[in-house]
Design brief:
By secondary structure, this protein is of the alpha/beta class. The chain has helices at about 50-65, 85-100, 105-130, 145-155, 175-180, 200-210, 230-240; strands at about 1-10, 15-20, 25-30, 35-40, 70, 135-145, 160-165, 185-190, 215-220.
Length: about 240
């Protein structure tokens, strides 16, 4: 892991860019912490350049509540090498949606499972590098989507003690089965009118989770219309479970 740039933001947040091998990432921490703070790993659906404004806003709010936040670039996003198979799966998905047809399991598997297989080990490697840093402590939380990545990570990574998951991306049936073995506390956000995604699939996934504590917050609106107050609810959830 190598830090490549840093800046102090105007709300006493230190933002540091890093690379983990070939993977770009960003870490946000209190600029002058009085004690080590728990880490929240922020999941996101695209490249860091395009997603930066939304990620930075989420991170700064998270740091203001007494946490550190970090994110890494997804495989095949930003400047990372593209996958021809993933590009073909996306094209097939767009074709099916434009035709008004049902999205079949085969397309969902081709689109999501290879990404999960690559992204989850990278998230675990990021935890390996970030948690030992001065000013950061465990356990860690995970917040965001793609939700299938969050499901797998919550299942296999013991350092993830709680997760806020954003419903709204397609979920393979094998991930649905994995969800039955997830036991960490969960706080799930669902946009009821999320365009291009399957609401019933999100509800089935929530029902499948094996966690004794799981909460679903459903709000009206499209994919990017999550109400601002949900950030406060998510931070309260993490405060209960990480502090």
């Amino acid at each position: 892991m190598e830090f490549t740039a840093e800046q102090r933001l105007d709300d006493d947040v230190l933002e540091r860019r890093f690379t983990l091998g070939e993977i770009p990432g960003i870490l946000w921490t209190p600029a002058s912490p009085s004690e080590p703070v728990p880490l929240i790993l922020l999941g996101q659906p695209g490249d860091l350049g395009r997603m930066y404004p939304r990620l930075a806003a989420r991170a700064r709010h998270t740091v203001a509540e007494g946490f550190a936040a970090a994110t890494i670039e997804l495989p095949g996003s930003g400047e990372r090498p593209r996958s021809a198979a993933a590009e073909q799966a996306r094209a097939d998905l767009r074709r099916v949606l434009q035709a008004g047809e049902r999205v079949g399991d085969e397309i969902v598997d081709r689109l999501v499972l290879p990404l999960v297989e690559k992204a989850v080990p990278e998230c675990r490697a990021a935890l390996d590098a970030l948690l030992p840093l001065p000013g950061i402590t465990g356990p860690a939380g995970y917040a965001g989507g793609i939700i299938s990545i969050g499901v797998r990570l919550a299942l296999v990574e013991p350092r993830i003690a709680a997760a806020v998951l954003f419903a709204g991306s397609y979920v393979p049936r094998s991930i649905l089965e994995e969800a039955r073995r997830v036991t960490v506390p969960l706080h799930v956000l669902l946009q009821w009118d999320d365009e291009g995604n399957d609401r019933q699939m999100a509800l089935d996934l929530f029902d499948a989770f094996g966690s004794k504590e799981k909460t679903l917050h459903a709000n009206m609106g499209g994919h990017t219309g999550v109400p601002a107050f949900e950030a406060d609810a998510g931070n309260r959830f993490f405060t209960r479970h990480l502090k």
